[in-house]
Design a protein that fits this description.
Elements: E1 11-12, H1 15-28, E2 33-38, E3 42-47, E4 55-60, E5 67-73, H2 91-104, H3 110-121, H4 127-142, H5 145-162, E6 167-173, E7 178-185, H6 187-196, E8 200-207, E9 215-222, E10 228-236, H7 241-257, E11 266-269, H8 273-282, E12 287-290, H9 292-303, H10 306-317, H11 321-334, H12 336-342, H13 367-371, H14 382-404, H15 413-426, E13 430-433, E14 438-443, E15 446-451, E16 456-457, H16 461-465, H17 470-478, H18 493-499, H19 510-520, H20 577-582
Parallel strand pairs: 8-11, 11-12
Antiparallel strand pairs: 1-5, 2-3, 3-4, 4-5, 6-7, 7-10, 8-9, 9-10, 13-14, 14-15, 15-16
InterPro entries: MULE_transposase_dom, Transposase_MuDR, Znf_PMZ, Znf_SWIM
Protein name: SWIM-type domain-containing protein
Domain SWIM-type: 439-480
Length: 583
Amino acid sequence: MEDHTFVVGQEFPDVKAFRNAIKEAAIAQHFELRIIKSDLIRYFAKCATDGCPWRIRAVKLPNAPTFTIRSLEGTHTCGRNAHNGHHQASVDWIVSFIEERLRGNINYKPKDILHDIHKQYGITIPYKQAWRAKERGLAAIYGSSEEAYCLLPSYCKQIKKTNPGSIAEVFTTGIDHRFHRLFVSFHASIYGFLNGCLPIIGVGGVQLKSKYLGTLLSATSFDADGGLFPLAYGVVDVENDESWMWFLSELHKALEMNSENMPELTFLSDGHKGIADAVRRKFPNSLNAFCMRHLSESIGKEFKNSRLVHLLWNAAYATTTIGFKEKMVEIEEASPEAAKWLQQFHPTRWALVYFEGTRYGHLSSNIEEFNRWILEARELPIIQVIETIHIRLMAEFEERRLKSNSWVSVLSPSAEKRIIEAISHASTYQVLRSDQVEFEVLSPDRSDIVNIGTHCCSCRDWQLYGIPCSHAVAALISCRKDVHAFTQKVFTVASYREAYAQEIYPIPGKIEWRKTDEASMDDDIQVVRPPKFRRQPGRPEKKRICVEDLNREKHTVHCSRCNQTGHYKTTCKAEGIESIEQF
């Protein structure tokens, strides 16, 4: 039917196939149909334009579902009379047109739908119709948002069944069990973090764009090679201080259940006050630092100066107080306002040299990298978002486990590269030994003191990164020590393999969940209804909380009637003022 022509005697598998074919022909040839009779055994139609002689009649064959064309009268004399829309181009027709494209590209935009339909059929359809078709198409492929919330308890049950030791809990609110929050952390992720990752956790959130919105909160870490390691994630109906307190409380429970002693952790975040308060309460022995990417984006947005951003990064990476102060002077020279603005963020929370803990050189979290995993799935129902992460986790764990099997070095590739570079620089240094553990290392432009007993160097690189610097390497080689043995364990291949040692197992499809639930007749599985808040029409605001907003002074209102602050003239309750004014 590529040419959309019909002949008498032409057959179709059933009435639905015939109706689709005649609709497709009407749209492609730009004429409107007027259906005279249409049921399961016959179909009569003519051209809707007055005076046009075109007619078609088709009937069902006896004892078979097959439909055949009995008569075809006249040719179109109406011309192309349907350019700016078509009655047959219904939402259902558009869904059938875009379904395969949607499967391949979730972010197939309504404007692209309009463009493709106009290109192929030469008709223009309303934007709203394309948008509705996309919504209906996504629901047909991935299920509705309402169904996704309803299936959440069963999905969580399947996670815990297929991946023993994992945590998957859905929380509701109200007597009608409206969705409130969801927390998921696979046992493989918890084990891998506690046994093979750096003791650093990045936390952050990203807005979802499905019918009922919500925010995906996540906690990630770094493996021994510096790669992204997702630890836990959840969905909340609203991102606020309370939801962050809840998320980090659930994270604390997950870690506490799987470790005898809670490790000393460093949290990286965008400066959200709720995160800082939650870390302080739930992880009192941990440290909270600014993610430098967010801080640098904030100063760049505030002052529109790329040089300031570059100087800020240099100051953050400075390994000595002298070097840090020099960079801060440069920032002040470039922009006194920026230097003053930066004073609201204490260097102990963003500068490497002043940070009380160890960040292993990681000044920024990898939350943005994790968010890119679900960037295309943000418009899908909640289960599809979570399943997208699950599928990616399975693939990443398997791929990295296989990749590490071919590594023959003691350290991970990134750490090994750093050591090789340090050895190369160390070959030009002169080493003077003071005693069994202390050395003076002379390089062309400086002199540094190295203590291999306390793993310290006066340049501070060894302490800040956990990997011997070039001065330490020179000292270690001079006394025939194994350089790799003086590198922190978190950078070894053994730690990397331990991080991905546990497997993340697949979860059965929806049909299997239903079969299992019906067989077990589990009364504990409650029905979860969607949250009351729905996506509003129109373009959503993109503003997120920025770190510079945290300490910004709030605008104080002033009353012109009583000269007091905190209220306006219209809400002033001062006695006697009104009568005086009237007098």
